[in-house]
Amino acid sequence: MNTVLLERLGREYPELRLRKGRKFLFRPPKTIILGTEEPSDLLLLHELGHYLCGHVSFNTEPERLRTECEAWEKARELCAMYGVPFDEDFAQQELDSYRDWLDKKSRCPSCGLTRFQTQDGVFHCPKCDF
Ligand SMILES: [Zn+2]
Ligand SMILES: [Zn+2]
Fold first, then answer.
1. 20 to 30 A Cα–Cα from 5, which one of 52, 95, 113, 114?
2. Ligand number with the minimum distance to the CA of 124
3. Pairing mode, strands 116-117 and 123-124
4. Alpha-carbon distance 34 to 19, whole Å?
5. Which ligand has an atom closest to residue 128 CA?
6. 38: CA distance to ligand 1 center in Å?
7. CA of 65 to the centre of ligand 2 (A)
8. 93 φ, ψ (degrees, to nearest 5)
9. pLDDT tens, position by position, for the chain (130 residues)?
10. C-alpha 25 to ligand 1 mean position (Å)
11. What is the H or E stretch that residue 10 is in?
């Protein structure tokens, strides 16, 4: 972890709480968990991106996917500002693995059709649930 970057963020965003943890995570409204994964500077700026985009919570998975895309777009700007190399492939991989996971999660366990989610976060199968 680049401590210079960390100190700079601490000065520029004194309201942010930076905590150590296992995985990088943004916990609304203003806590960033500092994980041990690499590339740590990029992941840190991605979590800061969630904060700056005002992401609070999401009910449905497509909404969550949208916030992930937004946070990566924001991270691209932040990288330019803070002189951190933006790794396009890494960002795409993260989004792809998220899409795969979403794809598996939305599949109906009984019939294999893609289910949809209502605002309460519950998945419904267009075939089995009606
Ligand atoms: Zn994220
Ligand atoms: Zn089904």
1. 95
2. 2
3. antiparallel
4. 6
5. 2
6. 14
7. 23
8. -60, -45
9. 678 999 999 999 999 999 999 999 999 999 999 999 999 999 999 999 999 999 987 778 878 889 999 999 999 999 999 999 999 999 999 999 989 988 898 999 999 999 999 989 899 999 999 7
10. 7
11. helix 3-12
CA of 128 to the centre of ligand 1 (A): 32
Long-range contacts formed by 2-11: CB under 8 A, 24+ apart: 2/40, 2/41, 2/84, 5/41, 5/44, 5/82, 5/84, 6/34, 6/44, 8/82, 9/44, 9/48
3-state secondary structure of 17: strand
Give me ligand 1 centre to Cα 111, in Å.
31
Cα(46) to ligand 1 centroid in Å equals 6
Ligand nearest, relative to CA of residue 95? 1
Q: Looking at beta carbons, which pairs linking 26-33 to residues 24 or more positions away fall under 8 Å? A: 26/50, 26/51, 26/55, 26/71, 28/55, 28/56, 28/57, 29/56
